[in-house]
Amino acid sequence: MADSLRTVVEQLERHPKMLVVGGTYAEVCAFLQGWDRGGGTVLIPGFREWLVRRGAPRPELAWPLIVLCDLYPQGRLPLLSELTGEENRRAIGILAELLRTYLDDDGSGHRRDCGRHPNGGGADA
After folding, report:
1. Do 94 and 71 touch, CB atoms closer than 8 A?
2. Residues 82 and 76 sit within 8 Å (Cβ to Cβ)
3. What is the pLDDT of residues 93-119, one digit of tens each?
4. Cα separation, 23 vs 15, whole angstroms
5. Would you give the DSSP letter of residue 79?
6. Which end of the chain, N or C, is more open, meaning fewer C-beta atoms within 10 Å of its C-beta?
């Protein structure tokens, strides 16, 4: 699963319009969240919690907004629908970098197994 996510992240970063119509950050986030909900597997288990552990300034937010905290000063988060083309590009780049780091580090120094559910079961659990 980790290799699949790496491939998807690379495609979303380089050519987002190949996977989502408008190529916006909001669409990329919806695509990733939809994969989790519709595919029956957990693509990015614990990603939000990982972001919080690394020091998210707004831990109460959903992960798409926590990622934007790397781009905007605290208290200045824009609506996702109001991001400019350049802001969308930068946000997708930051998300891709965070996902690559997340895949490499589960907080314990061990490689993350993204094919397993948080309850310890496999994709069919």
Report:
1. yes
2. no
3. 999 999 999 988 854 444 444 333 333
4. 8
5. P
6. C
